[in-house]
Design goal:
The chain has about 450 residues and is an alpha/beta fold. It is built from twelve helices and 17 strands. The chain has two domains: about 280 residues, 3-Layer(bba) Sandwich (FAD/NAD(P)-binding domain); about 150 residues, Elongation Factor Tu (Ef-tu), domain 3.
Amino acid sequence: MSDSKDRIKVIGAGLAGCEAAFLISRMGIEVDLYEMKPVRKSPAHKSDNFAELVCSNSLRAASITNAVGLLKEELRRMGSLIMEAADKAEVPAGGALAVDREEFSGFITDKIKNDPRINVISAEVDKIPDDGIVIIATGPLTDGKFYDEIMTLTGDADLHFFDAAAPIVSYDSIDMNKAFRQSRYGKGGNDYINCPMNEEEYKAFYNELITAQKADVHGGIDKINVFEGCMPIEVMASRGEDTMRFGPLKPVGLVDPKTGKEPYACLQLRQDDRASTMYNLVGFQTRLKFGEQKRVFGMIPGLENAEFLRYGVMHRNTYINSPKLLNSDYSMRTRPDIFFAGQITGVEGYIESAASGFLAGFYAAMRFMDKVPSMGPDNETVIGAMASYVSDETVKKFVPMNANFGIVAPMPGRFKGKTAKQDKNAAIAERSLAKIDAFSDIIKDITV
């Protein structure tokens, strides 16, 4: 690794690393971007492209009255590479923003590789640089010697949880005589494919699911937390017979056109690519053995002959104890030239990861130029509230967190009536975007 101090080093070309590197380049600074692909891939990665989406292809809610929807709009207004890619690669997903995985990652990869100020180095890094400004964005699957380096640096060797990905099936193999197209409550047109189950079918599926064979996971899942937002479907099922019916198999808002009634339970499948040839099983993250996935999930009406293009997988996610270690600009308190970004900081989710990379990139560039920004996003914005959360020394038990309005500064005043929640969230969004627009002007003045 180069010891040059005339550039910023970014380690990892996931969503956070690419967002950071691209913004730093926009600010006229040279970047060395280290990525171990294609030399080596983690067990969860399949593509050689940067910013690969490992779990779902959904970037979740699109509306700005939802915290993650507002975060996306904040990033758009600041010129986010990730949001530019997401908007270009969008596929139908009702009220959510979902993308064609290959198109999304391919767009980002091309932008990064063709940027004259970004020097991509295909190599596995095993040592944290001891000079210059560095952004560590190696992601939640960090392992090997570099994992050991981080744990030595931070002193926290036991912070990790398990995450899972859902299977993907071929559209042509779905029996549309049993399944039907419809979005919940009619929102977003007919973007989802629904596989309805009656009570007998559901209970038979449930009984097979809770006894199905599970794949071994390195590290011992029973000893480590499972992140609630990506809970394996078999773990959810183990919490009670009806738990799935209040989760990914909830039938509320759906009407089976064959019966004219709400199903007893219903699996939704979401389009995974622009060509509409692949669909993922929404909420069906799993660590069942591959053969068991085909057998048990094949009991769901419409999936009896499903062709699995990708089986569900499970992997360990690593994160640092950020409130003990990081400032609100994602730099280390003890070594301010080292920044962390992405899920390794404890922000959970694709967009949250990109947002942390954006801020880490901005503040790393400010430090490189020996400048103090006149303002930055505070906790009245979602991106700023996330930075505050991961650097809050008062947090007693730190756990990964998705974007949510609970961490955003409360909105003054009282909101009444049936639309109180929506009105409050809309006011939060208006307040946030006003601050983001002002901050965006600062970025525009600096970029070249």
